[in-house]
Amino acid sequence: MAEDLAGNIQVHDLARIRKAFARSFKIAQPQADTGVGSAVDLDARVAADMQLVLHADAEAIGDTSSLRSRTGAQLDAIGAVELVPRPPAVGASGYVMVSAGVGGSTIYVGDELTYPATQARYLVVATALDSNGGQCAIIGLDTGPDTDLPAGAVLEWSNPRPGCNSTALVWSAGLTGGRNAASDEEYIAKIIERRKNPPAAGNDAAYQALIEDPFAHGVAVLKGFTWPACLGAGSVGFGFLLRPAIPGGSRIPSAAQLEIVGAACEGSFPADDDQFAITIAEQAATVAFQVAWRKSAAGWANDSPWPEYVASTPVAVSNAVAITASGFRIVTIGVVSAPLPGKVIALYDASIPSFKRKTIATVTEVVADKQYDLTFDMTAGASDAFVPTAGALVSPWSDSLDLAVSAVTGYFDGMGPGEMVPAFYDPGRRQRRQPENPEEWPSEIGPRLDALVQAVSAVRSGTLVIPASTSITQIGINGALAYVRRLTDLAFYGQE
Question: What b/e string do you get for 453-463 counting C-beta neighbours within 10 Å, with b at 16 or more?
Fold first, then answer.
């Protein structure tokens, strides 16, 4: 272990363990023969072999625990020794539509485009003859979230090729994936992951390491996944998730990013590997909890928090009437107590992510115990200007709600894609997603998430009520498609 990294657990090798054994024996019996080949020496060798496993475990634990106390340059030093560099800032990537004449235009690797409003620069990643309207893959030369651009944004060629017009429009998927350098927390997780799954000789970890290496392709990959033998012996499926721009945000790569990373994989592994790029799509997820807050935390805004949890059909925003910031209809198929003016409710905004507050001003009964039209007090900050979507769950308000949000979004940011087949031939690795699910990067929603919410400092007790039982991510299409869960709605209710 590196001697300049203070705080590491010190361990012994075989020679030091044998020497310590012989010394202890000599102290207890000064006349004993402890020389090479003696009975004591043989016992010392056996003891050393048995202890070495414990010392190796201690070293691994020491490595991990020491990482938790490292920051900045200290972490970079550890990563340099272990050949795991910190993921750098990267630029957004995607497609632009080439505007060309009748014969098209040959666009070359390294050709540059600029977005006039910010002067952000982008580079072409593959040489090709593009016809008018053809897609050309580009990646940001400049870096960071500011390089993301929406569909339809106009870029300008620095030096247009013959037959190519001076501008190009961003393709319908937009330019996405611009990220800052990885945080210390993200970097620590990457180092630990690499220690657990060292790459070697084209194994699953080698594929994942290349997929996750932004220096190889320039895409801000969070985690790479493989499906060995997904379509028979010698085949391997690979896919990946991006680092989210915000907690709980989308991690889905674009077609251009899948193409860019796939190109980096070609030629990097054994020639007889039959590689398949796996598309990963989002499956929406709604979760809800019943919680009791600690006495030291901010509790519910009202003594009788509204709405209460209605099993399997919680109170939600209806699209039967116009939904505005100042009023909407709420509905449940079950039975809910009538809301009262002055009650404070909460709605989850996944784009932030956080809860938005609404204070009820008036209530109009539509269907007793089931449907009510609400208006909200919009004066003096009593209600946020947030406009929810149809179907959004309604929670009672507490100032502690946002303390629990990070636990939930953190879990979803650590979820991986599900499987591509409903059953496996054997207990081995064939067709199973690697790293293996659900031991790492789980694809299911259940008790693990429940435990994280209960560990929040403001929560005294909590129970996951939606989904009511462990929810498994949808099965994909073998060799082509896998699904990953994304948090789209969140609610908390009072615990009885």
Answer: bbebebbeebe
Q: What is the pLDDT of residues 349-364, one digit of tens each?
A: 999 999 999 999 999 9
**150 burial type by CB count under 10 A (0-12 exposed, 13-18 middle, 19+ buried):** exposed
Edge-first strand order for the sheet with 221-228 is 221-228, 235-242, 274-277
Regarding pTM above 0.85, the answer is: no
Exposure string of 172-202, with b = 16+ CB inside 10 Å and e = fewer, is ebbbbbbbbebebeebbbbbebbeebeeeee
CA separation for the pair 224, 207 (Å, rounded) = 8
Q: C-alpha angle 144/247/279, rounded to 5°? A: 80
Axis-axis angle for helices 184-196, 39-68 (nearest 10): 150
Q: H-helix or E-strand containing 217?
A: helix 214-217
CA distance 355 to 346: 6
Cis peptide before 214 (omega within 30 of 0): no
Tell me if 226 sits within 8 A of 238, measured CB to CB: yes
* Mean pLDDT value of segment 291-300: 95
Helical residues (DSSP H) of 69-158, grouped into ranges:
72-81
**Contact in structure between 410 and 404 (CB atoms under 8 Å):** no
